[in-house]
Amino acid sequence: MTCSDALRETRSTCSYCGVGCGVIIESRGATITGVRGDPDHPANFGRLCTKGSTLHLTARPEVTQQTRLLQPQLRLQRQASPLALDWDSALDLASQRLADVVQRHGPNALGFYLSGQLLTEDYYVFNKLVKGLLGSNNLDTNSRLCMSSAVAGYKITLGADAPPASYTDVDHAHCLFISGSNTAWAHPILFRRIEDAKRARPELKIVVIDPRRTDTVELADLHLALQPGTDVMLYHGMLHLMLRQGWTQPAYIAAHTHGFEALVEQVRDCTPERTAQVCGISVEDLLEATRLFATSPATLSLYCQGLNQSSSGTDKNAALINLHLATGQIGRPGAAPFSLTGQPNAMGGREVGGLSNLLSAHRDLANPVHRAEVAALWGVPDVPSVPGKSAVEMFEAAADGEIKALWIACTNPAQSLPDQATVRRALERAEFVVLQEAFATTATAAYADLLLPATTWGEKTGTVTNSERRISRVRAATPPSGEARHDWAIGVALAQRLEARLRPGQASLFPYDTQDALRGTEAIWNEHRESTRGRDLDITGLSYALLDAQGPQQWPWPSGASQGKERLYEDGVFPTPDGKARFHSTTYHPVAEARDEAYPFSLNTGRLRDQWHGMSRTGTLGRLFGHVAEPAVQVNPQDLARLGWEDGALVRVRSRRGQVVLPVQASAEQGPQQVFIAMHWGQEFLGGHDEAGQALTGVNALLPSAYCPRSKQPELKHAAVQLEAAALPWSLVAMAWLPAQQVLRVRESLKALMAEFDYSSCVPFSDTVPLEQAPTQKAGLLFRAAASRAPAPALLRQIETLLGLDPRQALHYSDASHDQYRTVQVLADGEQRHVGAWLLAGDTRAQAWLRPLLQEAQDVSAYGQRLLSPGATPPVAQAARSALVCSCLGVNEQSIRHQLAQSRGSDDERLKELQCALKCGTNCGSCVPELKRLVRWVRPNTEAPELAI
Prior knowledge:
Elements: E1 7-13, E2 22-28, E3 31-37, H1 61-67, E4 73-74, E5 83-84, H2 87-105, E6 110-114, H3 120-134, E7 139-141, H4 148-157, E8 175-179, H5 183-186, H6 188-200, E9 205-209, E10 222-224, H7 231-245, H8 250-256, E11 257-258, H9 260-266, H10 272-279, H11 283-295, E12 299-303, H12 305-308, H13 313-327, E13 336-339, H14 346-351, E14 358-359, E15 363-364, H15 368-378, H16 391-399, E16 405-409, H17 413-416, H18 420-429, E17 432-437, E18 450-453, E19 462-465, E20 470-474, H19 487-502, H20 517-531, H21 544-550, E21 553-554, E22 581-582, E23 601-606, E24 633-635, H22 637-643, E25 650-654, E26 659-666, E27 674-678, E28 686-688, E29 719-725, E30 730-738, H23 743-754, E31 759-766, E32 779-787, H24 793-802, E33 810-815, E34 820-829, E35 832-841, H25 847-855, E36 884-886, E37 891-892, H26 893-901, H27 907-918, H28 928-937
Parallel strand pairs: 6-7, 6-16, 8-9, 8-12, 9-10, 11-22, 12-13, 16-17, 17-18, 23-27, 24-26
Antiparallel strand pairs: 1-2, 2-3, 4-5, 4-18, 14-15, 19-20, 20-21, 23-29, 24-27, 25-26, 25-29, 28-31, 30-32, 30-35, 31-32, 33-34, 34-35, 36-37
Helix pairs in contact: 2-19, 3-19, 3-20, 4-13, 7-10, 7-11, 7-13, 16-18, 26-27
């Protein structure tokens, strides 16, 4: 073995949610070979969720070669195939085009849209480039979509954007008040900590406020399934009850707050009866939730997008914080309002001013003193006072022609922003669109004139800050893939070229070493550190060396301190002019778009357990589709029965802005007249066109561009929609195993065909093997389509060719007069025969038994021509296949039900017996809430059900 082949281990940080888990990356040479949780990282102590534990699989060469953007590329025409370009030519072109726009229209004709997945150093450079060098505040990030209401809520009440709690407060809380957060899926490792706390202290009370009955509810003592958007009324009603019952803390209110009298007047009419009616809950549950919150020795609120992504997001956040101030539930172990950050470094981006209304170190753009401080730090005459465009405003301005050029880094607005019709009009109308991105497969990539390859997880160096204000180092385990460059280095190279055009002869504002990543990032971070001196997030006592020696640390950590602060406001002093917190008095407003007779359903969006955002990374792994295999719209079973639809029927979901076609799925998690679609399903995996022939772009085409007037965060969690049966009588389903090095490339080719149908989807799948065997698992693709009439036979043959259906090895049947078409490829494996691929068109009922034949490699020697049978019943008896529950160990639902049917004892005893027998839930723990639900549902039988595979 050569030195380059030796196993290396690199401590770094996970690139997914805001929990900020530490990871240890294993690598050999330039290849990442494994990942495990860092046992010394205080965010996770070695644990990882289903997503984090598969990070190494997304960095395999067969994945990167098929999905990564590996060299600069230029499109001479939109939607055309890009041409390769060298870096100097690409950056020269970019600087020339941007400078030209500035000279013709001024700097505010530029828009920069960044990402909460950038590192702090990346953020800092671009913030300085746009606000310092170019003289525009048109820099915003996708953190606007997830955290800006939390920022505004903290500032308007407590005085600063600083979550006052730590993860250790979970261990001290007597009441956990989880509001608008499916923590079990969105922040899994924090939820493991909550499970541990509940197990150690059964008296810990957990209240969950959510319209849906999510996996988080499985651990709750009380679930308030409130009507969508009624959170402010709920909190006002709770405060009304606290006042009536004498559960407030007058001494704390008098000593540490202002504005309580106005709030008391505001909630006077929010009686229990009115609150219960508006929120759709019982008075008894309202009283119990209020009692637990106010009278528990320590109440910790955990909240996320259910509060943030709303046209009244700031009011929701502030109304919840009001309850903490009114009851003194703040500044003590286990007592605080704790906003859970959505992305891995949304907090770091806020720290350096990475929103259009912020400047470095939590300074406000509107404050002239703050602008002067930053201008002096950067060495520029001034920072412009004109407010910048927020995310929604920026793309609206581009669609209207006001913004001429867009620079997009590490995010996918053609999937993630609401009102997709406007977003795509903006991308089409802009004179120049640059996409700085690691992946070439995002929907936004098709609109870019210039594509610049950026490094990603495993290749980057710098820092991130998690939800509890903890700064962690990110370290590179391998060199950049292809010609990819670090995001901050791309920003520096662009800035230096713009300086030569816009301020020739002057000293550079960007003197960072782009040849040495560690030296470059450390110099940037040190400059950021200096900007925090004397601020609420003062980190002047920290350094790269200290973080390397002592591990991740919390801010503030000012110069001279020996450690950071675990929790804030313990002395009752807040970062306001007089040191007192402010109650925020606001009127309850319903959702921006209430359901009505024309649009009678409330649409909710949210995460899946095993997927992340637009799935540019997680969507490369078939094993992460085992739990939820395909897109669907979930509907309450009563509504489904009333409408007369069966599971799997295609329905058209319409809002006032757009539509999407999806299979319908009964789900008891939804309340009546409420539907749910996962936020991840965009044009990358879901396709088709409407009646006018316009391409369907995914779930976010349904959502309004309405946003909170204070935080500018859009209402991504709600839209009024109607459902109607999609009259698409012709259907197609195809499935095939493919060589691992071809799966994702074939998927990209199939994406080009998806718009040929009224409905289509294409997702990867894999065989179910334990995680340690994942590098050897087989992979394939599942393609679905439906249309009002059968397409030309040539299109079917094109799909067959892409899926490797070899006519020489296939059984085939066609009946053109009835639009029937079936092909099944059988492969020899010694004395056995296995299905390698199949395609059904017209009558697709046989998919129910062909699918498990293929996925489980069952011997089909006895089938012969009967493999072409059109019926839903298999011609030869076979076992069915159910959804995967435990992704790590490859355990499906039917196996779990079989085991539970044979077990006896208490629910806890049966769960332990199940885990001992099948090992499910013993690795990352993400499936434990679902296992508990199955334990409760599946009662012991005298005869165990037939075991399915």
